[in-house]
Amino acid sequence: MKLILISVGIGLFAGLMAGLCGVGGGIVMVPAFVYFLGMDQKAAVATSMAVIVPTAIMALTRFSQTGLVQWGVFWPTAIASIATAYLATGWLKKLSNEQLTKIFAVLMILVGISMFFKKA
Known about the structure:
mainly alpha; globular
């Protein structure tokens, strides 16, 4: 029961962040799965990816209704990211959980710093 309650809490926060900021999987769920549910980094990434699909579909439905989706950007980005994600999942198997965690941490730091100094 505790596992379900923690999972629901993670889902609620991830959904809120996905709807408001376009983030939820990597930034919210992966660290939460690791720290609150004790998953290893690889399982957290894989589980997050599974949750992202229905979350993204629901958010996309609402964003499409308001005309916010830039479809001309969507298609080339989607095609490139699908191919790269397929390759990257193969690379993930070769990395240790520690290496993957460090890569993730560096990415979050760099993104956070760039967003902090970006002029709105």
